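Handover notes (outgoing to incoming on-call)

Open items:
1. ANTAR domain-containing protein: sequence verified, structure written out, both below. Nothing else pending on this one.
2. Nothing else urgent.
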Amino acid sequence: MEMAERDQALTEPKAVFAALAEILYSAADSAEVYSAICSAAVELIPGCDHASLMLRRGNTNVTVAASDEIADYADDLERATGEGPCIDALDTEAPQLESDLRTPNQWPEFARKVVAETPIRGSMGFRLMVDRQKFGALNLFSDTPGAFTETVADHAIMLASFASVAVTALTRGEDADSLRRGLASSREIGQAVGLLMALHRVSDDEAFDILVRTSQNMNVKIAELARKVIVQHRSTLD
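ANTAR domain-containing protein structure tokens:
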């Protein structure tokens, strides 16, 4: 496909989801998939400096991947305090957004510790779904106060919906072709629309319009950065 044609194709949400699938093409196992999702979050989401993926296993919330030690430690603080964006995202459909953890907020103990012990100043959390069951959450952190906005959250929702599909495929043992079909399906786009409806408190039509505009803004950079993420990730394993 020529670059101009690709630019045009990626203005559609289905094409954006398909492009995100490139993150998985070189992944050998679930650990690499989870790690690639976290790496992609740092590369793709404006203002995101750290990311983690937390899955619920029985009564335990387990961090299965993190972009770095800071994200991993932030998850430890969530578990220790019993509060935070990822924990709340596990229990509610609404995306969790706190742009400045230095000010009074919904997670006072977590905020106090994370500000005192890490460079993190903003956070977001998005629930991941598997077969309509609560399963996990994508946690995003920023070192810059105010960097996370609702517009940035729109971009993150695209990645969170992709992560839901990836986790679902892994738990079912599906192959890459099945995953690519899932990423391009209306069901997965519906997941993103639902998250946008919850974030912005808008109708499904308005949410879909946001989805289209977001995919237009992200453009072909998604595919390019996804390839870069895989190359960088695999180079750290060599």
